[in-house]
Design brief:
By secondary structure, the chain is α+β, with helices and mostly antiparallel strands. Helices cover 26% and strands 16% of the residues. It has a domain of 124 residues. The C terminus is likely disordered.
Length: 353
């Protein structure tokens, strides 16, 4: 029986810089299920490791859509448990508590998400790798093992999403066939399609192209930029993570865990980006003062104790730097700090040996 434990993601997924295309869908359903039936164990994030989400279908000689759907299962549970706690019953669109032996209707807002998983499973059951693909050798056909599963899963869902994009153009009367002129490019303006790194949905990025208004996708880049494993991510896949106080910057779960992208008030621990006016801190060591709210509320001795003296700002990047970092940078003895020269500007972040 083909089955895949998608949450928590495997190290192979993270090492390859892509994730299973159903990971956000499964997490969104799992979070809602626990929120309704077991709120004390509601998951905080995809990568928190406490929960597991598994889904699959019965492998048989008959690979028709009906046979796959009749055996499709979606299970949720805690990683410490040997048996799943909840199941999604697709024919009746219900949530089953496997411990209490009770069922409730699936919330209407989750039906499209479950439908996506259903569509993926049918397409995955019919998937045949392309022998011309450079990654073809990763398949071990003798044992029918695919490592990592995210790769063929990504291929499957990418094909489905490309097909949906061209069906949009066909239904709008813009094209006459769903066969693409150039793969991964818009049929009209021929520019590369914008694709979400997680759900793999695509849209034309060119605002003056006739294909642009057909998609209602919006995008939310991780503040970590090229250092983020998600890369481009649509706003529908923004699950968890951290958003700064001014709502302008967001980091995904993994980049939030790595830290270093937001300043945090030493008293309330709220995150602030460089645009937030409520908190300023050192560009180099990330040391920060109390935010404006805490500075007004905290006793004077606490404010004085946690005060960081900032010098600058730098004439090049306009970032403040604390006095110890400025001194160390001038001496060339510190690692990964802001290099400050108030007359000629700075190199911002620079490494020293």
């Amino acid at each position: 029986m083909p089955k895949w434990k998608i949450i928590p993601p495997t190290m192979e997924d993270l090492d390859q810089h892509y994730c299973h295309p159903m990971i956000v869908n499964l997490f969104r359903i799992m979070k809602a299920v626990y929120g309704l039936l077991d709120p004390d164990n509601e998951p905080s994030g995809i990568h928190e490791g406490k929960h597991a989400a598994t889904f699959g279908y019965e492998d048989s000689e008959e690979t028709s859509e009906s046979s796959v759907l009749s055996s499709l299962f979606i299970h949720f549970g805690l990683s410490s448990q040997t048996s799943p706690r909840f199941a999604i019953v697709l024919p009746s669109m219900q949530i089953e508590d496997l411990t209490q032996r009770s069922r409730i209707p699936l919330p209407p807002e989750l039906v499209p998400t479950v439908t996506d998983i259903r569509d993926f499973t049918v397409a995955r059951s019919q998937f045949t790798p392309d022998p011309n693909d450079p990654e073809y050798d990763i398949y071990d056909f003798e044992y029918e093992i695919y490592e990592p599963e995210s790769y063929p899963a990504g291929q499957v869902w990418e094909r489905v999403q490309m097909q949906k994009f061209h069906e949009l153009l066909l239904n709008a009367g813009i094209i006459e066939s769903t066969h693409p002129r150039l793969n991964h490019r818009c049929d009209m303006c021929l520019l590369d399609l914008l694709q979400c790194k997680v759900c793999l949905k695509v849209m034309c990025p060119t605002r003056n192209c006739v294909a642009f208004p057909l998609s209602c996708m919006r995008w939310r880049p991780c503040a970590a930029g090229h250092r983020c494993w998600y890369g481009d991510i649509c706003i529908d896949c923004v699950v968890g993570g951290t958003t700064c106080l001014c709502q302008e910057s967001w980091t995904c779960d993994l980049c939030t865990e790595k830290g270093g992208f937001f300043l945090r008030c030493l008293r309330c621990d709220r995150p602030f980006c460089g645009r937030c006016s409520y908190l300023v801190g050192c560009r180099g060591c990330r040391a920060s003062n109390l935010c404006h709210d805490c500075a007004e509320e905290a006793p004077k001795d606490e404010t004085k104790e946690k005060y960081v003296e900032l010098v600058g700002p730098c004439t090049k990047c306009n970032s403040p730097v604390c006095k110890p970092c400025a001194t160390a940078a001038a001496a060339g003895t510190s690692v990964h700090i802001a290099v400050v020269s108030f007359s000629t500007g700075c190199d911002c972040i620079k490494s020293y040996k």
